[in-house]
Amino acid sequence: MSRYRGPRFKKISRLGALPGLTNKKPITENIRRKQLRFRKKSKYCLRLEEKQKLRFHYGLTERQLLKYFRIARKAKGPTGQVLLQLLEMRLDNIIFRLGMASTIPEARQLINHRHILVNGRKVDIPSYRCKPQEIITARDGQKPRDFIKNYLNSSHHDKLPKHLTLYPSQHKGLVNQIIDSKWAGLKIKELLVVEYYSRQTKT
């Protein structure tokens, strides 16, 4: 299944706020929540919705998300928390969380166009897994720096998670440590995602 490129508003109207996909909020969100109170969902539906939230927020294909789940399942620690850590430490998400782009798709575009440096080296792979003490900077050039500067000026630096440090005037960010899952940018019940994939894949 390919990456979703359709109407973003349609997804947030169904699944709720997805800050990584779009910063817009559905107007009918409160009305829809009231309607859903009277509608009982199956356990499968609840698991599927949580999985879809994760997929669309981080902008992944179904195959990519399944791959991350299998890696998380083999790692030490709770599978759901490890899964969130893997997704949060992606380069495209780090740029988004630093405020260098307004959404993860825009951060991915910056990376694909080779506007981002990691420790002084050009990295054009959005799925690159960032490590502690790595420095993320904008490539020299007026266009990429002006683009990123606009987002840095409009973002709220006080909301920056503890595993990141931002230096706005230098268009630079520092990865301090591996993220704690409680600092994830999406409010989600990761256990339901684990249950969904555990039933879809062979043990």
UniProtKB/TrEMBL annotation:
PROSITE patterns: RIBOSOMAL_S4 (PS00632), S4 (PS50889)
Gene source species: Monotropa hypopitys (pinesap)
Organism phylogeny: Eukaryota, Viridiplantae, Streptophyta, Embryophyta, Tracheophyta
Stored SUPFAM superfamilies: Alpha-L RNA-binding motif
Record-linked InterPro entries: Ribosomal_uS4, Ribosomal_uS4_bac-type, Ribosomal_uS4_CS, Ribosomal_uS4_N, S4_RNA-bd, S4_RNA-bd_sf
Record HAMAP family: Ribosomal_uS4_B (MF_01306_B)
Tree of life domain: Eukaryota
Alphabetized UniProt keyword annotations: Chloroplast, Plastid, Ribonucleoprotein, Ribosomal protein, RNA-binding, rRNA-binding
CDD domains, sorted: S4
Annotated Gene3D superfamilies: Ribosomal Protein S4 Delta 41, Chain A, domain 1 (1.10.1050.10), RNA-binding S4 domain (3.10.290.10)
Example of a GO MF term: structural constituent of ribosome
Homology family: Belongs to the universal ribosomal protein uS4 family.
One CC-aspect GO term: plastid
GO biological process, one term: ribosomal small subunit biogenesis
Name of the protein in question: Small ribosomal subunit protein uS4c
Subcellular location, record wording: Plastid
